[in-house]
Design a protein that fits this description.
The protein has 93 residues and is mainly α. The chain is 55% helix and 0% strand. Helix 1 packs parallel to helix 3.
């Protein structure tokens, strides 16, 4: 999947998959680890996408604790694992 392909000509929505991933990662990637396989992304982009996904997952957990559950299973553990891999890669450079 090329992350620079156009999604929409409408300026009110993200114009690339990279832009969309930075706003709502789970709509672009099925699993957080999938981000790490994207050679088109810099480590900085991968990190920012994963941080957004983590924020989304935390918000979902808060909603579930307030009785607003019923969506997809949480992937916070998967996100944290992917973040740990990115951080390990940065530390080994």
């Amino acid at each position: 999947m090329a992350l620079d392909s156009k999604i929409s000509e409408d300026k009110s929505v993200p114009c690339t998959l990279l832009d969309a991933a930075k706003v709502s990662p789970s709509t672009v990637f099925e699993h957080p680890i999938d981000i790490l396989t994207q050679s088109e992304l810099s480590n900085a982009d991968k990190g920012s996408i994963l941080k957004q996904w983590k924020a989304d997952e935390i918000a979902l957990q808060i909603a579930e604790s307030e009785g607003m559950g019923g969506g997809e299973p949480a992937k916070l553990d998967e996100v944290n694992q992917a973040i740990a891999i990115i951080e390990k890669t940065r530390n080994n450079c």
